[in-house]
Amino acid sequence: MAIWLNKDSKVIVQGMTGATGVKHTKLMLGDGTNVVGGVNPRKAGQSVDFDGTEVPVFGTVKEAIEKTGADVTVIFVPEKFTKDAVVEAIDAEIPLAVVITEGIAVHDSASFWAHAGKKGNKTRIIGPNCPGIITPGQSNVGIIPGDITKPGRIGLVSKSGTLTYQMMYELRDIGFSTAVGIGGDPIIGTTHIDALAAFEADPDTDLIVMIGEIGGDAEERAAAFIEKNVTKPVVGYVAGFTAPEGKTMGHAGAIVSGSSGTAQAKKEALEAAGVKVGKTPSETARLARAILVG
Questions:
Q1: Which UniProt keywords apply (predicted)?
Q2: Active-site annotation holds for 24
Q3: Which CATH superfamily is domain 11-126 in?
């Protein structure tokens, strides 16, 4: 009942000793995440006590993998150091890197994404500027609240952090296989299409909820993919129905120009592919509930 993250995932935290890293490592441990180490070259050899759980600090991602067998890293380092942190994770060939940091320069994101490609895409990048990924009851990597839902049959992929949380809460009685927040920056690693393909292949995901937002054409491309490749029911929501055209809204990627990238255009593309699209998050949740529960 999971894509990319499960109870056996061994997680390291780049930036674990900073204030944000400490806070969220503690929360992740509380959700049952198997956090096996942190990375900070200046504090290598030390450990951090999280309510009785001692988590060692390593000098590099490579060392952390060698010592712990880690297969997931979550990155909480400040934006000016994020590119180097992601490149280090890619060079160490860790299978999954979840980049929480926001405010990263687009050039930096483009640079580490290109670097991953040069290295053969051995590292899946989620983010940047994302809430992370959670497989409820098994593992939680990032900043998604761990207590708002339960394990279940819905797969969720979302550009928006807050809408991720709302959808998880509204459908908490049904529960989720995995929820992935991919981030809304102009350049991201994992896309809607990547998550749709993974949920389609997951035998324990019965329905997919996809949350997009105005700007760009990611949702239109996802609609084309769904039409050709997804057999499971998909329910969608596009944030920004009330946004005025030509105005930048929220995430850096949400820029509307003419009819391209508007919520209505995205809704029409998704509906043409057989996706039921709600006008509000709550209506979207009702659509999902009607399909699964009746």
A1: Ligase, Nucleotide-binding, Tricarboxylic acid cycle
A2: no
A3: NAD(P)-binding Rossmann-like Domain (3.40.50.720)
